Amino acid sequence: MLELQNISFGVTEDNGGGSVNKEILNDISLTVGDNRFVVITGPNGGGKSTLAKIIAGIEKPTSGRILLDGKDITDLNVTERAKAGISFAFQQPVRFKGIQVLDLIRLAAGKKMTVADACQYLAEVGLCAKDYINREVNASLSGGELKRIEIATVLARSTRLSVFDEPEAGIDLWSFQNLIQVFEKMRAQIHDSSIMIISHQERILEIADEIVVLRDGRIDASGPREEILPALIGTPSAVEACKILKSK
Ligand SMILES: Nc1ncnc2c1ncn2[C@@H]1O[C@H](COP(=O)(O)OP(=O)(O)O)[C@@H](O)[C@H]1O
Ligand SMILES: [Mg+2]
């Protein structure tokens, strides 16, 4: 379904004495098949969020091509890519002053939707729908609530490819267990679609079909979970792996 061909991304930075090129992603090639649950992991600063933004069309690669179902989408902007079937949940979700949660879910679904249907998506991410459906998507929502609402909008969109950037980040008020259940359910219900999650969480890595390790803008390792997870650290514990990855 998704094919990344030799994706590189660089920025030009001013270091005071002149501009220097900084390589953030270097020659990333990756194929995500149909009905796959792919987890991208690796040390902070490795380029994971940048890669997600390139897939969603928020950033443009310096070189390389992106194909969705065989169609070249490299030159499509973020709106066109959303239409083509890619949805994206930010590591830091955006707040929309003046817009209610209900509007946001309906907007995401892109079709007529009853309040009851919209509530269903909130319930799926562990929010009591009646408390939230008419809330404004503004600063009064905690980071964890906002994150869950954003996950609900991605569910409502039900596109070919859903990309989640560190869904576990900032879920302080929400039991981590619920988040895992949301993703386990998503995985069980995969149908004509695929899910890509950027995560450091052992429980998420453990339900991956495939794991990709990004380090310093390059693919350090990628393959089926059974191969990558133990090899990542030489022990079966992903918790240790993530500690090691984060400390690097
Ligand atoms: N637009 C940008 N300009 C300059 N540096 C950037 C830009 N986007 C990302 N970076 C840098 O690229 C590296 C990778 O960032 P990021 O993709 O956020 O990593 P990760 O999500 O794996 O932690 C970091 O060093 C970050 O500071
Ligand atoms: Mg990131």
Describe this structure in a few short sentences.
The chain has helices spanning 48-56, 78-84, 101-109, 115-124, 129-132, 143-157, 176-188, 202-205, 225-233, 238-247; strands at 2-14, 19-32, 37-41, 63-68, 71-72, 86-89, 96-100, 136-137, 161-165, 194-198, 210-215, 218-224. With 248 residues, it is an alpha/beta fold.
Topology of helices and strands:
Elements: E1 2-14, E2 19-32, E3 37-41, H1 48-56, E4 63-68, E5 71-72, H2 78-84, E6 86-89, E7 96-100, H3 101-109, H4 115-124, H5 129-132, E8 136-137, H6 143-157, E9 161-165, H7 176-188, E10 194-198, H8 202-205, E11 210-215, E12 218-224, H9 225-233, H10 238-247
Parallel strand pairs: 3-10, 3-11, 6-9, 9-10
Antiparallel strand pairs: 1-2, 1-4, 4-5, 7-8, 11-12
Helix pairs in contact: 3-6, 4-6, 9-10
The structure holds adenosine-5'-diphosphate and magnesium ion.
Question: How many distinct beta strands?
Answer: 12
What is the CATH topology assignment?
Answer: Rossmann fold
| Nearest-integer average pLDDT | 87
- Global Rg: 18 Å
Question: What structural class is derived from the secondary structure elements?
Answer: alpha/beta
What does this structure look like?
By secondary structure, the chain is an alpha/beta fold. The protein has a single domain (2-242), classed as Rossmann fold. 36% of the residues lie in helices and 30% in strands. It has ten helices and twelve strands. It has helices at 48-56, 78-84, 101-109, 115-124, 129-132, 143-157, 176-188, 202-205, 225-233, 238-247, and strands spanning 2-14, 19-32, 37-41, 63-68, 71-72, 86-89, 96-100, 136-137, 161-165, 194-198, 210-215, 218-224. It has a six-stranded mixed sheet with strand order 6-9-10-3-11-12, with helices on both faces. Helix 3 (101-109) packs parallel to helix 6 (143-157), helix 4 crosses helix 6 and helix 9 crosses helix 10 (238-247). The mean pLDDT is 87. It binds adenosine-5'-diphosphate and magnesium ion (MG). Residues 48-49, 91, 165-166 line the site of magnesium ion.
